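Run folding on both entries below.
>entry_1
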Amino acid sequence: MATPAASSAPLIEKHTIGYVPPEDRHGKVRDLFTLWFGGNIAPLPIVTGALGVQLFHLNLLWGIVAILVGHLVGGVLMALHSAQGPQMGIPQMIQSRAQFGSLGALLVVLIAGVMYIGFFASNIVLAGKSLHGVVDSVPVPVGIVIGAVGSGVIGIIGYRFIHVLNRIGTWVLGIGIVVGFGYIFTHIQTDDFLTRGSFNLSGWLATVSLAALWQIAFAPYVSDYSRYLPADVKVSSTFWTTYLGSALGSSLAFIFGAVAVLATPVGMDTMDAVKLATGSIGPLMLVLFLLSVISHNALNLYGAVLSLITLVQTFAYRWIPTAKSRAVISIIVLLACCFAAVGASKDFIGHFVDMVLVLLVVLVPWTAINLIDFYAIHKGKYDIQSIFQVDGGIYGRYNPQALLAYAIGIAVQIPFMNTPLYVGPVSAHINGADLSWLVGLLVTSPLYFWLANRDTSYRRRMMGGKLASSL
């Protein structure tokens, strides 16, 4: 249900990392479906989905199965984070101080910021290539700058505008991708569309991991886009609208990439394959994807900026960041990413995938700790004031239990890793299959639960009535 604040909410967001008070809450739960559905039908998930058949040599059937399994599993974790937003009313990364302490959370916040800067830079490369594909006279570097500026404007305006654009995008892109599927299936240009590739366990698991990671990668900022909803919104409603929107939208985009690549000759660049496979409607599809990547990329810029503000505010605790602060930091990030992307656009997407595979190792333990702490330890009840105190209030500067579980959660994944930087012995023994993220979840979750429940001094503080769910 919409609140009275919905109609009076300013278009340019005034909040940054601070608590959103009840009088500023607005929006509808169904906006979460459109945000994550529309936001996931974009070039980057299309390119990532194509890797299942391009890089891991799966056929269409097993590629689709792997994509669905990965998104359906990873989407559960992502949506559980989203459901925290209305109850907490603060961004996800600053909420991590309640699990790791005011200083202990810095590493996780830094990792999230780096990841979203990487996402942003990769997407502006795709925007540049898409614009060049639509208008040949526009060089890719110029297209990169145009894409970055467009995303920057949306990100600076902020929360409400992002939701509005994705409500529109859900209908436009949803219809567009269905039409695109229809055209490809009726104009297949290869004889091995259904037979190219085959099942192989390592490739199947790698594709599952990429899809699951796509969902888990949203975890550090997914609740940023639900934190303005009224606090009495049902957790189940927030969960299901987020889950269905993200799992469905991203699965469609991943599968679209795989289908386009299989419908065209071997060796083509994914976006070139999309243009060729969609024939006469190809230019229109590229225009839609160009608009999509600009809109979707605003989320990455927004998340990166909130992470950077959280880092700075940890030390400059008297600083009260404003909308102007958010705009200035957004421009700085935008310029830096443009410079990096223009200089490395040829190999940027490959480097991005390498980075994502490495970041998976450090994101998974954080996800496990955050969810166990929120749903099993504190049951959504936190002292918001302590989260913003320089000494961490009742949460302290460091939480040894969380940091220990986090370190062990990273360490146990190493033998199961398969990244360009390192291949673990277990992964090498099973033909390169990467099971690190699954091991990290299965070890970190019960370990943190056990360690947190043994912290008797912390439980005494809880019993002393110092915890509250809001200001």
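>entry_2
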Amino acid sequence: MENFPVDAQPAARTAAAVEGSDSPDQSLPSGAGAFDASMMQRCLTLARRALGQTAPNPVVGSVIVRNGQIVGEGFHPGAGQPHAEVFALKAAGELARGATLYVNLEPCNHYGRTPPCSEAVVAAGVARVVVGMVDPNPLVAGGGIERLRKAGIEVVVGVEEEACRQLNEAFAHRITHGRPFGILKYAMTLDGKIGTTAGHSAWVTGAEARFEVQRLRAACDAVVVGGATVRFDNPKLTCRDMGSRNPLRVVMSRSLDLPGEAHLWDTDVAPTLVLAQAGANPEVQKWLANRGVEVVELTPLTPASAMAYFYDRQFLSVLWECGGTLAAPAIADGSVQKVLAFIAPKIIGGHSAPTPVGDLGLAAMTDALALHGVTVRPVGADCLVEGYLTPSAGST
């Protein structure tokens, strides 16, 4: 994954030309609304280049258009580095004067690690700004838009807003709730099993679904499993087919009953963190530390305490790839906001075969946790069901 701004070439490019392989439609859209939407989609394409690399900041892309041609573009590569608008303005140079600037998130209007982007936009002489969504951060929350309008700049808000919100849903959740965004992912057979009665689980789904999971990992800051998953599955939890960064691999284990040999202890491939109950097996803790594995004690050791710890580490999104025993408390204590269930057209059977979610203490079907915003799509021979959990009373 590239981690640098995309500068315009000296000669201005048409919107269709710059889309290249990112868009199957090589013709300019008709109408101002369609053109604005097309340019906002380009912002989102640019922003995605930094997925998983910007925490605790959002992913943002920006495009500058003059006379129907893109004259500059860029994206935010990571916290502490210039924002997308700054890269786009630098690429455009004097061509930004009188131009339209597109950005998927409201320009900031406060001093943080970097100066406010709103001032840079005003100073560049931009005539019009198209914003995908208002920044949920209280430090911004409309202030950037207000600053631009007071400077006489025309501002349009809400273009491709739903797509913009979805891209930065983890950032919005972190800002609003003070916790990272939790995603529970699992793969199961048509009859709801994640493995056989003997514990064998490779592979439930096909290659296309596994590639999709690696893309998901690349966009997250951490991926979490329990000790049982390490013992029975020996996962790598990497993005090996993506050619991109790997997330922090996290093992939650109260007793540290962990195998001596596991892919996760190879920290040259990707970093690994073990979260343990306070005082758990000092000898194993020392052994892990000698292997380059970070060990942190949490009291109590729960999904909620882990998410609080991840928040302190500035994480945006956490992927739960655990078994049913850990998935149930993660759901129950509000550590999961989104569920991705990959369903394979297979039947394995077995009364004792493991299932994706353990006991939630629900006695009646009317107590079942319903997902909202559900989408269903094929992924190779498998099916992906994706949706959001409605927060329960008292959950984060």
